[in-house]
Every structure is written in structure tokens, then in C-alpha cells.
Amino acid sequence: MASVHRVGARALRPIWNGSKPSLSRKTLLSTGKQKVVIGEDVSERLDVVPAKFRVIVTRRPKYAFKNADGVIQAPAPAHIIEGGIPTEALLAQIAVAKYADGMPLYRQEAIYARDHVELDRQLMAQWMGKLGFELEIMADYIFSEVKKAERVFADETTLPTLAPGSGSTKTAYLWAYARDDRTFGRSGPPMVAYRFEDSRSGECAVRHLNGYRGILQVDGYAAYNKLARADRGNDGITLAGCRVGGGVAIPAPHRPGRADYPHPVLHAQASLTRRQHIGGRSWLLAVGIARAWPGSASTADCCGGHAVRAISSISA
Predict the structure, then answer these.
(1) Which of 100, 219, 283, 284 has the least C-beta neighbours within 10 A?
(2) pTM for the model
(3) How far is the C-alpha of 256 from the C-alpha of 157, rounded, in Å?
(4) What is the C-alpha separation between 93 and 186, in angstroms, rounded?
(5) Which DSSP letter does residue 293 get?
(6) Dihedral sign (CA 78, 84, 90, 93)
(7) How many CB atoms lie within 10 A of CB 310?
(8) DSSP helix, strand, coil percent of the chain (3-state; round to 5)
């Protein structure tokens, strides 16, 4: 059985190309001997099939009745971009490249031009806006699943966004909410949901987490204090700080200058791991693990105030 090579976290299975090196017929005839297979040497090389553009043509014949009025024709198939040229596969390619791989639209524009395909960045931005609208229902569903967790991690970061009509950018904010219960033996997948806002006010977090009653892992930003009851009641959100071990902060790789991530990511997965009695009181101890959430939920949008995965701006 052929071995399986792993590149990163994915298993790549070899593909047999059907060719077999063999002795030449002339060599066999000159020796007068018959060859018998006694074994073989196998070598494997990693190959890649570059992406290729193609044009899909859909023909819909029109029919008329003899000696009768009227024309019939099969309805046109539904598309995300009605009347547009992109297939769903092309939209997914552009979205994943931009939001998951940090490839701005102007760079994609140049890459596609090498294949003699002209896609204007402004046109692609319009496509991404429409795609975000279509994915809004998925974004809402994932956020609802995030809020079902006993523990949720929250953070926010700045996000330069185009200011319509001004030709310049303004500072907006991306609020991130994540869950990952694998540390606690749960089988559910890790999830991260985003909300796009023009403000960093605590009212944003209050609106986002309406109805949540679990543990919220946050940094020291005072806006999150609005989520806890002033009388320390137990029917609200329980805030847990993300500083561990003598006030040493967990690294924040999404902050400018801290790490070279192509998009804002959760600055840590701070999982509450155990409860310990110290000085006669019960404390929740946290362990922070910086990570970029490669296994998080699907790519989505920052349109309509929603996002599912780490995202940069809709602008190019």
C-alpha cells in the first residue's frame, strides 16, 4: 500500500499516473531471456494542478407551437449574482483568497490578469458585498451556536474601512466571539463569529451578547463591564480576565506590530481549564494559547454587520 504524505495538517494521497518503467524490447530479445517481476521501487513527488479559468455556456432553446401563439423556454438557472458572469466557484475563490488568505482584491486583479482574465477590483468588491448578504443567515446561525457555549472568548480590533464619498478610510471595529470546548472533552467544532461596528462602545457588546449567560473571557477593556450585573448577581454574564500568572498578558498577535497575520484574528484562545482553591476562595485558572484559528467555521462576510471568520475590509 502506498504511503500517505502529510503537508501541514492535510493528508495528500499519491495518484498513480499509469506509467511503468521497463526494459526495452530490444534488450530482452538480444538476451533470449524472459523477465519476471521480483519487486519494484516506488518514488513519489508532490505535484500541483494550477487553477484554470473556463467559460460555462448555458443554452436554453426557445420553442414555438405550429399554428399557435406563444413561446416556451426553460427558466434560467438561479445565480448569486443575477445577470453577472461569476459562477459560485469563482465567488468562493475570490472570497477565500481575500478573507481567509489575506489577498487584497487589487492583488487578485493582477494575478487573474496573467491568465488574460480582466476582473476589476471594484467589480469584485460588489460581488463580495452581494455574497456577504447571501451568507448573512449562516453568520447568524454560527453566532447563535457560539452563544450556546458555557465559555465564550471575546475581543475587538480596529478595522480601516472606506468612508463612502470621501475617498479616504475611517476607523471601524471588528468584534470577535469564539468558542472551543475541545479542551473540556466536547466534540463540537471550534467556532468564531464576528460583528462589524462603527463604534467600540460597550453597548455593542451588550447588543451582541443579549441573552448569553455563561462565562465571557475578555481582556481589561472596561466596555465589557457593562455585561456584568452591578450587584454581582449570578443570572448574568460572568466575566473572566485573560491575564495569567502575575499580571502577564497573553500576546495579542492581531495588534499592529505584534505579528504578521494577514487579517485580524483572535489574540488568544483563553480556555478556563480548572477550578482551584487558593486562600480559602475558589478561583478559575485560565491558560492562554495564541492561535490563528485555522480550523474555525467557514469563511463569510463583514457585510450587513456580520462575519463568520477573520476578515479584513470589504475595500480593496
Answers:
(1) 283
(2) 0.62
(3) 10
(4) 32
(5) -
(6) negative
(7) 25
(8) 25, 25, 55
